[in-house]
Task: structure prediction
Amino acid sequence: MTEPLLHIDDITVHYSRLAAIRGVSISVNEGEIVCVVGPNGAGKSTTLLTVSGILNPTSGNVMFAGNRINGMRPENVARLGISQVPEGRHVFTALTVEENLRVGAAMRKDKAQVNKDVKWVMDLFPILAERRRQSAGKLSGGEQQMLVIARALLTNPKIMTIDEPSLGLAPNIVDRVYEVLTTLRKERGLTLLIVEQSSERALKAADRIYVLRSGQIQLEGSAADLQDGEEVRKAYFGFSEGTEHLGEVEF
Amino acid sequence: MRDLLNNKNFRWALAAVIVVVGIIVAVTDPVRFQILITSLSEGSFYALAALGIGLLFGVLRLVNFAYGDWVMLGGYALIVPSAAVTSTLLIGSFFPALVVICIVGFTIIIALLSEATVFRPLRNTTPPTMMIASFALGYVLQNLIIMIYGGRPKSAGIFPELLQSIDLAEGVSVPLLKIVTIGVTAILLILLTLFLHRTSVGVQMRAAAEDFRMARMLGVRANLVIAMAFVISGSLASFVSLLYVSQLGIMTFRMGTPIIVFAFIATVIGGMGSLVGSVVGGMVVGVSSVVLKNILPDSIRGFSDAFVFAIVIAILLARPQGLVPAKSASERV
Result:
């Protein structure tokens, strides 16, 4: 097997003295869709923010295409081709839709290709073309989710990490988001690392799944192997430990 | 009343009514017209100063009290460094356009040095820490000037032709400098707006001002955006400096303090971090200060600043977030 594109190698991340994740290892191969599922507070966002260089691991490494990237500035991580769509979307509400997209492409030098790509994402999400001159703050939640995915695509990423793309969206919008994501993989060979609370959705879209709970990986496997969901549920809720409840925040 | 004030359309309508009534009242009488020009000029001056503060706050959450001392340094750069009683013009003796270029360049260098030595190492600390550091920087700069130039006021007569009066209309005569101040501010505002909306770095800067972390995750270079904010803030300070020295012809090491106090108040009543707010706030402070000086009865005219501050308090009571609040005030990274 070849080297994974992204290899999160045994990382532990602390918020002051509290360990949010302990010894988490995740690898993503080129062209794969990998889903990390887990309850609220499991450390999913922490993991992604560490990949993006926002947080620094206290131990362990994040390797991208064979190079260590932990300790790098977030903008330099982004420039390597790792684009993150963080939780809560983070559109720039003071900017127009088009300006949001332009910020995504700001670091690129291939201006002709950027213009083509802007057209391409607007074809992908026609609503963005319709609203290009409008303030991004006026978009609905679903439209904002499309905008931030389009914006991340314009960085021309090798891998895109997405934190809870379905959060707060109507089911039909979530379907649309996942449809686009799987198309992107098929047509552009985009590698995706998606974090979700709902394991059902993740099982459908992903090639491989990791279950993260209480800051540790509880289970990993191919989506096909875990299809019936029983094992995932067990790992997700961890009901062998009687004190825990569904989705409880546990650090 | 507060509900009404929170309605954006109502606020713009109210502002428009005030401006239109003000202009109608002013143009019907030569003396009042003169007051209008003077107050617009004063407002422009504070708007410029407030923009320099508002911009840095927007991008960095830095309340930069050393800004007034950048203005002061820009002024002292006009004369030969010496403690002699009579000062000799240095940069100030150059060809006018060259004076402007040199002072702008000099102040930008001071701003960038301030960033590199003080604010960059403190970037990941809290806003109050950076604010205290800016006070400290301001004192260091003031004492540096005392060491080199001495503590006595220094004269620097630059652009004397600006102090000549020109006739705008029958019986309306104002110093050319007032018109120049309004014009310079208008041009700088247009340039700044074009930069922020039409250039890639400008758009990145607006994005970073709203959500710095997200901007960095899209590859926006923090150092570039922040350095650019210091460059712009520094060049605004240099224009404040040139306008101030042209007007008064005299400098002291403390000259930055009243400027920063009024400019800071302007950014607060305008809405911290909002550039439109800074301009509006500067205008409110400048216009009300000039108008009050002219309409108050002689016996209390000396206390006109107290009335300006009363207006400030009234505005803050009605709108604690400022007249034109910024869109976002998310945490820095």
User: Anything to note?
Assistant: Chain B touches chain A at residues 200, 203-204, 206-207, 209-211, 213-222, 327-328, 333 (CB under 8 Å). The radius of gyration of chain B is 20 Å. Residues 329-333 of chain B have pLDDT under 50 and may be disordered. Chain B has one domain: 2-318.
